[in-house]
TrEMBL record:
Classification via SUPFAM superfamilies: RuvA domain 2-like
GO terms of biological process kind: transcription elongation by mitochondrial RNA polymerase
GO cellular component, one term: mitochondrial nucleoid
UniProt xrefs under InterPro entries: RuvA_2-like, TEFM
PANTHER family with a match to the protein in the record: TRANSCRIPTION ELONGATION FACTOR, MITOCHONDRIAL
Protein name from the UniProt record: Transcription elongation factor, mitochondrial
Annotated region (Disordered), positions in chain: 108-128
Gene3D superfamilies linked: AF1531-like domain (1.10.150.280)
GO molecular function, one term: DNA polymerase processivity factor activity
Bias-annotated ranges (Polar residues): 115-126
Top-level division of the source organism's lineage: Eukaryota
Length: 362
């Protein structure tokens, strides 16, 4: 049985279903059922695929094995004349090709004079940079950002750190302890807690959480773990909504700007742990060593040997950290490392930091 649909020919049999691109139609927009790849963009994509070597192609959203297949096809049949040709390459199905094209287009659009892109992506060093921040932070907000607050939420409590862009200054640190709260709370109690926390969070241009890591199948079978995880997700959602609507924290537009704009962003999970080497396998270790190195440099100008810029901090803020219990130190430390990671990757676009979090490709 053969079915023709939108430029694709599907051949069905008892054991498999094969799909190949019809030679009759080479309209890529029809193939992906979206018009966002203009003729100019398609030309750019083909130019990249035809002229890039293995190292250059590695920076885009495509595996090494498929890069080899692209080169084999290109060496055998010559340059790609259309995106339909690319679908003939082994392993380059519609979805894979769409992701590859999107990464090429985004790389081209976000390239700036420094050779860097938004949200911690480099465009000319031969490495693949995935999106580190959700949603994407546009250039206008990057250029006008004066301060940012990192929020770390864990079972023991929530902490926040505000970094001012000028002199990379840590100018506010705080936490809220959950030890007196019951392990299981009603949504109304969680909402009241969110309002209480909101009042304590310092005002800033944007607010940053870390995206929740995936939870293992084994953990889903543990009632206590799932209860804690679900309540953290619920509290995060409430804080997101409150921050974006609070008269104190929400974006205040000028006459020429839109009235509503998101102020809450999520940094990809474990980026700060990878940057500061506090990830052992799938488990995080204490942030104390990294935080102490940063604070000692701020206090005594001691070399911290970390893949980030130095920070500034007043003496009383440093003493605030050292006067706390080990649990609170960890809370404060995690929010500090989170906001530093954001500033290094997404605002300063520090090549050393970007290289430190780059995943190793096979």
């Amino acid at each position: 049985m053969m079915i023709i649909k939108r430029g694709l020919t599907f051949v069905s049999c008892k054991t498999c279903q094969l799909a190949r691109f019809s030679t009759v139609t080479t309209n890529y927009e029809g193939l992906l059922q979206q018009p966002k790849f203009s003729s100019e963009e398609q030309g750019k994509i083909l130019e990249v695929l035809n002229k890039s070597n293995t190292e250059q192609l590695s920076r885009f959203d495509v595996s090494q094995s498929r890069i080899k297949n692209l080169e084999v096809w290109r060496n055998k049949k010559g340059p790609f004349k259309s995106l339909a040709d690319v679908l003939e390459v082994d392993g380059l199905g519609v979805k894979v090709l769409e992701r590859l094209c999107e990464s090429i287009v985004q790389d081209n659009q976000k390239h700036d004079k420094s050779g860097q892109t938004n949200n911690g992506k480099l465009s000319n060093n031969g490495k693949n940079r995935k999106q580190y921040l959700t949603p994407i932070l546009d250039n206008d907000r990057i250029n006008n950002l004066n301060s940012a607050v990192g929020l770390h939420l864990g079972p023991a409590g929530i902490s926040w750190t505000r970094i001012a862009r000028e002199q990379n200054c840590l100018n506010e640190w705080g936490f809220y302890d959950f030890s007196t709260f019951p392990k299981k709370m009603l949504p109304t109690d969680t909402f009241q807690l969110a309002i209480t926390i909101l009042d304590k969070i310092p005002v800033s241009d944007i607010y940053l959480f870390e995206a929740s890591p995936s939870i293992s199948m084994q953990s889903t079978k543990q009632a206590a773990v799932m209860t804690s995880y679900n309540q953290q997700q619920e509290l995060t959602s409430m804080l997101l909504a409150l921050i974006n609507t609070s008269p104190k924290h929400a974006f205040q537009p000028t006459q020429n700007e839109i009235s509503h704009r998101n102020n809450v962003f999520f940094l990809r999970s474990n980026l700060s742990a990878r940057l500061f080497k506090t990830l052992m396998g799938t488990e995080r270790v204490s942030s104390t060593t990294a935080v102490s190195n940063l604070l000692e440099h701020a206090k005594n100008s001691v070399n911290h040997n970390l893949p980030c810029n130095s920070i500034k901090a007043e003496g009383h803020i440093i003493e605030q950290y050292y006067s706390q219990s080990s649990v609170v130190k960890e809370l404060l430390g995690q929010s500090l490392l989170l906001i530093i990671t954001f500033m290094e990757l997404c605002i300063y676009k520090n090549p050393t930091a970007l290289g430190a979090v780059l995943p190793r490709r096979k």
